[in-house]
Amino acid sequence: MTVCVVTTSYPSHDGDPAGHFVKAEVEELERAGHRVTVVTPRAGGAFGWPGAAFRLREKPWRAVETATWMVRAAAEVRAARPDKIVAHWSVPSAFPVVTSAGANGFAGVPLEIVSHGGDIRLLAATPQAIRRVAMKQLLGRAKAWRFVSAPLLEKLTECLDEADAEKVRAIATIAPSPLAMLDVDAEVRARRSTLGARPLYVCAGRLVRSKRVDRVIDYVAGQRAEKPILVVIGDGPERERLEKLAQRWQIDVRFLGNTPRREALAWIGAADELVHASIAEGMSTVVREAEQLGVKITVL
């Protein structure tokens, strides 16, 4: 079977953490014998770090690039001649398919939508009249809609009228994305050896308000442990404010910025505690990674 995966987040180079769970699913499909074509925007641009919503607010003209990509994506899907299309994030990844199917010759190809969180928050925040039109297009084409957690399905159906909510439930499944772990035991031991007895806390994610990294800093500052270290993995518009907060608390907070996935996993594995405070998650990848690495998890 030829599968076309449409996604706005996908690793652009080795070690790039962007959309690594989508890449893990692609690799699973390939191991199962399917031929997979990935349709994704160029690195950066409207869909770059720390996310499309922020980048469009920062430079509204990037909306033109979004529209251009949707046209190009539809052409790439047509050229792939797929037997199945999988769109990671209903908005915008499914729209090159649902708005262009007839013209591009893949009207009868089954479409599976996969929602990870950001797309559902966007749909829920969209004005009702626009959301109804969008849902009509999505539900008119999708044969399956996969949610990485049950709360995501509930969040979407709560903002729909009952008829559309029933249509979503009829094609919905709940399944977390595949998680391809790396062997970082040596890197974990190397980091622990440099810390001595100092307790290490780690948090990871985009430095945006919804991730609530300020609460993580407050939490670590309130611990009675001697000379705690907090490693913050990720970057974003909140970094300067968070650095000033750490300085006021006078605690050892190390901002690593955007970090290759192997390095990020090594820090998580070395941690005494992963601290997670985000209010905007479908199924937190970093929490799942910490579980796999046997690290204590605190959710604020």
What is the spatial order of strands in the main beta sheet?
Answer: 2-1-3-4-5-6
User: Compute the gyration radius: what is it?
Assistant: 20 Å
H and E order? EHEHHEHHEHHEHHEHEHEHEHEHE
Helix content: 40-55%
> Which second-level CATH architecture of the largest domain applies?
3-Layer(aba) Sandwich
The CATH homology group name of the largest domain: Glycogen Phosphorylase B
Give the beta-strand count: 11
Amount of beta strand: 15-25%
Q: How many domains comprise the coordinates? A: 2
**Biggest sheet character:** 6 strands, parallel
Shape: globular
Number of helices: 14
Low-confidence stretches: none
Overview of the molecule:
With 300 residues, this protein is α/β, with parallel strands linked by helices. It has 2 domains: 2-174, Glycogen Phosphorylase B (Rossmann fold), CATH 3.40.50; 185-299, Glycogen Phosphorylase B (Rossmann fold). The chain is 45% helix and 18% strand. The chain contains 14 helices and 11 strands. It has helices at residues 20-31, 52-58, 62-80, 95-98, 101-104, 118-125, 128-141, 150-158, 162-171, 185-195, 213-221, 239-249, 261-270, 285-292; strands at 2-7, 35-39, 84-88, 111-115, 142-147, 172-174, 200-204, 229-233, 252-257, 273-276, 297-299. The protein has a 6-stranded parallel sheet, sandwiched between helices. A 5-stranded parallel sheet has the order 9-8-7-10-11, with helices on both faces. Helix 6 runs parallel beside helix 8 (150-158), helix 8 runs antiparallel to helix 9 and helix 11 packs parallel to helix 12. The longest helix is centred in the first third of the chain and has 19 residues, at 62-80. It is globular, with a radius of gyration of 20 Å. The relative contact order is 0.12. The model has no long low-confidence stretch (mean pLDDT 90).
